[in-house]
Amino acid sequence: MHEVITVLPESVANQIAAGEVIQRPASVLKELVENSLDAGARNIRIEIEDAGRSLIRVCDDGCGMSPMDARMAFERHATSKIHSADDLFRLTSMGFRGEALASIVSVAQVELVTRREEDETATKLIFDGSEIVAATEVAAPVGSTFTVRNLFFNVPARRRFLKSDRTEMNHLIDQLERIVLVNPDVAFSLFSEGKAVTTLPMGSLKKRIVDTKGKAFEKGLIPLDFKNEIASISGFIGTPETAKRKSAQQFMFVNNRFMKHPFFHKAICSVYEKLIPTGYKPCYFIYFAVNPSRIDVNIHPTKTEIKFLDERTIFKLLVMVTQQAISKVLRVPTLDFNAQNIVDIPSYHEGETLSDAYTPEPITDPSYNPFIDPSGGASNLLHTSSNYSTRHRNMALPKSDWQDTFDQFLNSPSSAFSLPTERPIDSHTQSLFTEEEKLTSPSNLLSASGNNMLLYEGNFILTALSSGLALIHVQRAQERFMYDEILALLQRKGEGESSQQLLLPELIQLAPQESLFFEELLPTFEEFGFEISPLGGGGYSLLSVPRGLEDEAATILKETLKSTLEKEGDPHEELAKELALTYLEHHKNRLPAISSLEEAERLVGKLFSLTEGYYTPSGKPIFRLLSPAELTNLLG
């Protein structure tokens, strides 16, 4: 009988390892740039083509490698970082397992040129699927240049699962940001398709954050600085004004390594809980320095999940440091975020019976008889007793009867609760509910059930249909109308309608990732009637906008770009919808409540003439139809 267990070929084992280590082009970029940092590089240049599918090149001025080390670097588990298991608990370098280069070379065509300062010539190695196909000596400066071409060329299934160029480029930039934010003393430059995406010179940490994330953070950062024997905590948190509902900038690092730590994230959010609106997220850039023996980074191939021995202590320290930093900026004493709205509770001692503990005595009036009418007439529970003390009489319910209530109803202003006069209105609107209801305008819709309409508080309309009562939310209906009008306006701009030139150009400053995406969408924005002039360095000048969208144009444009960036699919097709949604979000609170029945009738007619969708753009229902059975159930 033949043996069935065999040892896998080295190339196959490397491809299996690559499935964990090399998931997409961003994974390659991370490994190569971290190698450059471990080599002591001060200047790193990155070139990308086809979102990393065709080319990823990383060139540095680090220490370089000898010819033998250059060959050994591509062997699996070949590393200069550790020599024994004990070294795993004293790690300070980015890489250490010796798997990355072996994994990359197994799924791509790789070229390495490297030279040390003491060598006269550089070593050039060319790999094709784990196999060295050429090894020569060439002239090159000190440092290393890794060139990775045709990623996953020999694993077609993996290549097919890569996302769109935009998505993969976003991952590349996200990965690079995690690295540049922890290395402000290293200069980085990124090029895509031969064009400069970003250039980051050496500088302070705050300057690196501003250069990477935009000038909006220039005045919105609060410094952190704390150190004790357990950990040091430094970096910056954002002011409450920098909090975002989406795309909040949240970064944590430990010993110069990016990490995701939900427990520490919760600590920060707990401090901001009462300082920012519900649903908003604080921004932070926090750097921990911890004894390497007190953490474990070797629990996942991506090294972003890290365990701390002193996790709960650091949680408390982080809460304290964040509270103190925010309190200084808000110019108030150190805030006790948990001391508000606390009710004093009497202490209870073991052995004490419940009757011994303090119990508040209710205030009573023994002389009060609720069944005696002080006027001498029939008893009325809503009247007060003549013998009731003055203090308690003030707490009694006011005099009331059904006649008073009905008189108030009849005399109430129309803006609060209105009854329409009966008058016929032409029909033009198709019914929403049944084939039999071929009704066309508010009054015709109402005539089937008595021609009644109620307007309450200027924001709710109750109107009768033959199939029941329709309750309409005025604000939501107006939101739908505004959204549809903006979409129609953008469509007209696409058909050549003129734009409105701004009195003063507005500046739009974008982060590198946003700028790259914005360049891609510029033709579509111009079709909608926006005139935008690039200024360089992620800056743009907004000169003209579609007529009617002048208010807060630059802010709306920037927020639209961010929301579109987060979505899959063709951004050119989604851009008009995202632009309309963003404009609506900024202006929906300015929509006026209606104040007359004529306005209510026009709104109902406009609503029932919609050809599609009786929901707000965010998916909330605009009205609800209550059938007679539902009304009966409501009343029990």
Describe, in plain words, how this protein is organized in 3D.
- The chain is an alpha+beta fold and 636 residues long.
- It folds into four domains: 10-198, Heat Shock Protein 90 (2-Layer Sandwich); 204-330, 2-Layer Sandwich (Ribosomal Protein S5, domain 2), CATH 3.30.230; 451-475 and 592-634, formyl-coa transferase, domain 3, CATH 3.30.1540.20; 491-588, MutL, C-terminal domain, regulatory subdomain (Ribosomal Protein S8, Chain: A, domain 1, 2-Layer Sandwich), CATH 3.30.1370.
- 32% of the residues lie in helices and 21% in strands.
- The protein contains 18 helices and 23 strands.
- The strands form five sheets. An eight-stranded mixed sheet has the order 5-4-3-6-2-1-7-8.
- The relative contact order is 0.07.
Q: Can you tag this structure with a few keywords?
A:
single chain, 636 residues, alpha+beta, Heat Shock Protein 90, Ribosomal Protein S5, domain 2, formyl-coa transferase, domain 3, 4 domains, eight-stranded mixed β-sheet, five-stranded mixed β-sheet, 18 helices, globular
Nutshell version of this structure?
The chain is of the alpha+beta class and 636 residues long. It contains 18 helices and 23 strands.
Topology:
Layout: H1 10-21, H2 25-38, E1 43-49, E2 55-60, H3 67-72, H4 100-106, E3 109-115, E4 122-128, E5 131-138, E6 143-149, H5 156-160, H6 165-180, E7 187-192, E8 195-200, H7 205-213, E9 221-227, E10 232-238, E11 250-254, E12 257-259, H8 262-272, E13 284-289, E14 295-296, E15 307-308, H9 311-330, H10 390-393, H11 402-411, E16 417-418, H12 442-447, E17 453-456, E18 460-465, E19 468-473, H13 474-494, E20 499-509, H14 512-527, E21 531-536, E22 539-546, H15 553-565, H16 571-587, H17 597-608, E23 623-626, H18 628-634
Parallel strand pairs: 1-7, 11-13
Antiparallel strand pairs: 1-2, 2-6, 3-4, 3-6, 4-5, 7-8, 9-10, 10-13, 11-12, 14-15, 16-17, 17-18, 18-19, 19-23, 20-22, 21-22
Helix pairs in contact: 1-4, 2-6, 8-9, 13-16, 15-16
